[in-house]
Fold HTH luxR-type domain-containing protein.
Amino acid sequence: MLDVLGLDPTGQLVYQSLIRQPGTSVESLATMTRLSPQQIQDSLDSLETLGLASRMPGLLARFTPAPPEVALETLIEQKESELRRARVAAAQISETYRRAASTRHPAELVEIITGREAVEQRAVQLMHGVQTELCGTDRPPHVGDPIRTNQTELVTLARGVTYRVIYDQATVEIPGWWTGHYESVAAAGEQARVMSGVPVKMFVADRRLALVAMQADGDTIEACVIVHPSELLDALCSLFEALWRQAVPISSDNGTPPTVAGHLVPTAFEATLVALLTAGLGDEAISRQTGLSYRTLQRRVRQMMDRLGARTRFQAGLRAAFHGWVQPPDLPD
């Protein structure tokens, strides 16, 4: 835990031993920790340099720890100061990079990235670097496991970044995708829509960088391009907005459809069921996503229809929309 302060595991062990028994000699510390006297001496030298320990007066070399609440807090403040200076330097470097990018040769506006690991690394870097909004279109194949929660996205959402993602229906139909991935990111604030035939797999960060998948080898992405500020990037942004207007909202924030005051409120399962039906999934695909058997799913659908007072699924869809269970797609301007 204290590695970030410059204290390695051996130093931490020696420091904790000093705290438990102040005024201890090198030999006693070696016995307590089962380390060699040389290891103890090296760690004590480091502790003294960091201001975490000092030698006591006297002929026998004995050492005492500095109070943790004072010494550790001082080191933490030093590290925080270093981080602040690093952020200032990073901002200056980024500004220099943006100015240089504006005068790039056309051949430098696009980077080609090859290799699955390199593609995944750049995708993670793009997500970590986004400041305000990330827009993406998603379709198979996937860089990571599509049924596992994207931890990088959760961290980014926690920073207040807006996520808008258009999923291809083929992604939504992957068994385990709904509970394994979507529910967690929806609860964290992702805005998601679905459509059939998503034409390209891409992510656009802050409208200043785009990652576009260019080559797929079986179930993995082996190459992509990074698009820098240019008319091509502007075109990709416009493409995303056009697709966003056409796509159907999967659900509202936190994975629960909105409700209208005084209208029927869906149960948690009904909210999930309506979202999956809205996404265009058939009964077998919904059965795989929810973990219910086909017959059990049919019974639950029938119960929802009865609750809505509907005799057909089409009528149930209309009544669900009336009660505010479904978000309508954007209307054309």
In short: The mean pLDDT is 82.
